[in-house]
Design goal:
- The structure is a single chain.
- The protein has a 7-stranded parallel sheet, with helices on both faces.
- The chain contains 15 helices and 7 strands.
- The chain is α/β, with parallel strands linked by helices.
- The protein is globular.
- The protein has 3 domains: 49 residues, Single alpha-helices involved in coiled-coils or other helix-helix interfaces; 213 residues, Rossmann fold (3-Layer(aba) Sandwich), CATH 3.40.50.300; 60 residues, Helix Hairpins (Orthogonal Bundle).
- Helix 11 links the parallel strand 6 and strand 7.
- Belongs to the SIMIBI class G3E GTPase family. ArgK/MeaB subfamily.
Length: 344
């Protein structure tokens, strides 16, 4: 494939070239230092065309039907409401091999056939929240390409949903009825993150159970806070199979976004997310420098060996590693530009 400059890549993204969009996301996902520099340049070039999409996080317990829900909702948003829909579907990475199945395109078969849809499966890389490290940057690429609805599907494990809630406008949590004592199994912190809650699979013999579960969750939301003026996440039911409740659910999601805009809290919310993003990137760069600095690597190996024979405590060892890092800082080249071929 012919080498493409960052300027050309940005122009092709603006034109909606699917191949170049995919290539750009591969670039921002790369952990190679040279690619990170190129990704930063790309993000600067496309910045004026970003920020206009409706960002929605979709998470929930395993088995809630997140991918099936996104498939049905995405098709409806395109066919009936005229949206361009992008999906960032984050798959869990193996803690042993680092690999992922990345099978979301097969679970979203109807949506994948739509011209105005773009589905990008990405490995979580083991990061908290099951959200790939570059999910934020990928959202910007998709916004610059003209997608006005960006759905971020997360792994849905424990309380780690905080990661996706910190990068979207509306956080939609999916639950399913008949999972034992579901109220006991849901952590309060997760309920506090949710902007809208949906009980899925509300069809057939499960429809009544879903309605009961929705009532129980509505009561639980009232018990979380005694402040009657504080917004509580509405709880609805829907079926990805029959389509029942999907329109009402999306209307509720849009209402939440409208409330953020009318109250003037959308801009501060995104600013706070940018601030968190900034410090996350600083932390990632520091950790990468710790990992790659020859002096720090040698010190770390020595510290670990002395930990093994108990001649050094963890506290003393951490101080030695930090001193080695501080000594290496003046010789490091932060933000060096390196010209390498873009990932294909």
């Amino acid at each position: 494939m012919r080498k493409v400059t960052i300027e050309e890549l940005a122009d092709k993204i603006a034109e909606g070239s699917r191949g170049h969009i995919a290539r750009a996301i591969t670039l921002v996902e790369s952990t190679k230092p040279a690619h990170r520099e190129q990704a930063h340049e790309l993000l600067q070039r496309i910045a004026p065309r970003t920020g206009g999409a409706f960002r929605v996080g979709v998470s929930g317990v395993p088995g809630a039907g997140k991918s099936t829900f996104i498939d049905a909702m995405g098709v409806k948003l395109i066919d009936e409401r005229g949206h361009k829909v992008a999906v960032l579907a984050v798959d869990p990475s193996s803690s042993r091999t680092g690999g992922s199945i990345l099978g979301d395109r097969t679970r979203m078969s109807e949506l994948a056939q739509r011209e105005n849809a773009f589905i990008r499966p990405s490995p979580s890389g083991g990061h908290l929240g099951g959200v790939a490290r570059a999910t934020r940057e990928s959202m910007l690429v998709l916004e610059a390409a003209g997608y006005d609805v960006v759905l971020v599907e997360t792994v849905g494990v424990g309380q780690s949903e905080v990661a996706v809630a910190g990068m979207v406008d509306t956080f939609l949590m999916l639950q399913v009825a008949r999972t034992g004592d579901m109220l006991q199994g849901i952590k309060r912190g997760i309920l506090e993150l949710a902007d809208v809650i949906a009980i899925t699979k509300a069809d057939g013999d499960n429809e009544q159970a879903a309605r009961v579960a929705a009532r129980e969750l509505s009561i639980a939301m009232k018990l979380i806070t005694s402040d009657n003026d504080k917004r509580r996440a509405p709880v609805l039911t829907c079926s990805s199979y029959t389509g029942a409740g999907l329109d009402e659910l999306w209307d509720t999601v849009e209402k939440h976004r409208a409330e953020l805009e009318s109250s003037g809290t959308l801009a501060p919310r995104r600013l706070a997310q940018q601030r968190d993003w900034l410090w996350n990137m600083v932390r990632d760069e520091l950790m990468e420098s710790l990992r790659t600095s020859p002096g720090v690597r040698q010190t770390a190996a020595d510290v670990e060996a002395r930990l093994a024979d108990e001649s050094l405590s963890a506290l003393e060892g951490s101080q030695e590693i930090l001193r080695a890092f501080a000594a290496a800082v003046p010789t490091m080249h932060w933000g060096d530009q390196t010209s390498l071929r873009l990932p294909e």
